[in-house]
Amino acid sequence: MQLPASFINTIRITFKEDGEKFLAVLPALIDEFSQRWGLTDVRPVPNLSYNFVAFVKQSSNSQNVMLKIGVPHRELKSEIAALKLFNGNGACQLLESDEERGVFLLERLNPGTMLAELEDDDERTHIAADVILRLWKTLDSGTRAARVQNFIQLSDWFDELKNIRPHFEGGTGLFPKEIFERVESFLPELFADKDVRLIHGDFHHFNILKSEERGWLAIDPKGVIGPVGYEIGPLMINPWRSLSDRVNFQIKTERRIDIFRERLGWERGKIIQWSTAHAVLSAWWDYPNLDWAYSLNCAKVFSELK
Description:
five-stranded antiparallel sheet
C-alpha cells in the first residue's frame, strides 16, 4: 500500500521516533487486524493526517465500517475511552478496539456530509447545539468523573499558556498584551465552574458528520475532562479561515452567541470568554508552525464583543 508523502511527513514530524516505528509496523498492523476482525477491501481515506484511517468492509456481515490506527499516545487512548462512554449517543459508534496498540473500528457514517459543507451558518449552529445536547444526555454529572485518569485534563491544556511569558522573556510577544492579560485574568473564574464533565474537546464543523440513519454525529473526540463551556471554543473559530470577511465573521459570531444562549442556556459573557481563551490557546499551539495569525485574529474579534 502506497502511503501519501504528506501523511508520512506528518507522522515523522509529530511523533518523531515513535512515528518512525509506527510507519514501519503499519502494514503488519493492517494485516493483523484485518484477519482478527474479518476486514476486507482496505481503502485509505484521501485526507490522511495524524492517523491511518481507511474504509473497510466486515466480511461477517458485509457492513461498511472504518478502520483507524494511530501512534499509541495519550490522546488516542482518551479518544477510545470517550467513544466507549458515548456509546454511539451523539457520537460515532465504536465497534472494536485495542487501546494499547492504537487500533479501533468505527461505524461508517453515510453519506458522511460534514457540517462545514452546509452554507447556512444558523442551521449549522443549531445542528451543533443538537449534537451537544445529545452528548450531554449520555454523560450527565453522575458520569463526569468516571475513570478520570483515562482522559485529558482541560487544565493541562491551558497550563501551556504559562509558557508564553518565559518564551518571550517576560513579555507576550506576538500575542496582544491586553488580550492575553484579559485571558489570564478570567481563566480562574472559568475553571471555577462546577459543571465539569467529559467533553468532546475538538468539537467543530469538520468533526460533525451526517448519518442517513442516525442524524448528525460527532467524530474524533479528544476525550477531555473540564468545564463544559469550553466545548464551543473550537466551533467558534471554525470553519478554519472563515475570517476572510471580518464583518461577516462578526455578524456570524453574534448570531452563534445568541443561538447558544437560547439552546444551551449559557451566559453571553462566558461564551465570549471561552471563545477568546480557546482562540489564544489555538494560536499558541500553532505558533511553532508559524500558523498562529488566524486564531489570534479570531481572539481579537471575540475580545471586542461586549
